[in-house]
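Table 4 source record.
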Amino acid sequence: MKLELALVAWAVALAFAQMLIAASAATLHVGLPMLAGNRDDMPPRTGWAGREQRAHLNMLESRVLFAALVLVGKTNAMTALGAQLFFWARLAYALVYLAGVPWVRTGVWLVSIIGLILIFAQLL
């Protein structure tokens, strides 16, 4: 399997882990009865529970772009570098966002975007 495709699979695993953490955080924050219900009038998640929810949603948005670029199929040293930058930056982003470090979070997000740009540039 090409490195870029393997990293797409690992990005799915990362998103899944974030989903489990976000669900656990929501359970602790609002309680299982609220989550098991229709979620009408659900209070907003705050603190680390809110940060994890936002980090997970951001990963879902970014992962779609990453997968689309990789699935085009072009593979070379630059696409491999871009895929690695994207994946490792997204892992760092998840950890830094959960910890609540704002400027570092923005920096690692930017690194992940640079990874996407590197892949996209090879498709032109």
